[in-house]
TrEMBL record:
<dbReference type="Pfam" id="PF07686">
    <property type="entry name" value="V-set"/>
</dbReference>
<dbReference type="InterPro" id="IPR036179">
    <property type="entry name" value="Ig-like_dom_sf"/>
</dbReference>
<feature type="domain" description="Immunoglobulin V-set">
    <location>
        <begin position="1"/>
        <end position="87"/>
    </location>
</feature>
<protein>
    <recommendedName>
        <fullName>Immunoglobulin V-set domain-containing protein</fullName>
    </recommendedName>
</protein>
<dbReference type="InterPro" id="IPR013106">
    <property type="entry name" value="Ig_V-set"/>
</dbReference>
<dbReference type="InterPro" id="IPR013783">
    <property type="entry name" value="Ig-like_fold"/>
</dbReference>
Length: 97
């Protein structure tokens, strides 16, 4: 749980390897919000989605930081590491001020 307006980092606890493709998804529909190709260091963030515009940061260890959280950022997040078929789920609660 995080207070609205604060930053939160969803921590990856799996060691990232050189040829991994890391994908973050949000919500029941699994909307792609961020991905990183570790080998090429190519990062893409879904800034088209207004819920996350200019507030996502994907870290080299595959953790995802959401800055200035809003209540609409609450929900399920899934981290997928392609190539190893590893995944982690997070439930984020955001409480109003």
């Amino acid at each position: 749980t995080v207070m609205e307006g604060e930053s939160v980092t969803l921590q990856n606890d799996v060691l990232v390897e050189r040829d991994d493709l890391i994908v973050w998804r949000f919500g029941d529909k699994g909307i792609l919000i961020a991905k990183i190709d570790v080998e090429t260091k190519e990062i893409s963030l879904n800034d088209v989605d207004e819920r996350f515009k200019d507030r996502l940061q994907l870290n080299q260890n595959a953790s995802l930081t959401i800055k200035k959280t809003k209540t609409e950022n609450a929900g399920f997040y899934e981290l997928q590491i392609r190539g190893r078929e590893s995944s982690q789920r997070f439930l984020l609660s955001v409480t109003g001020e």
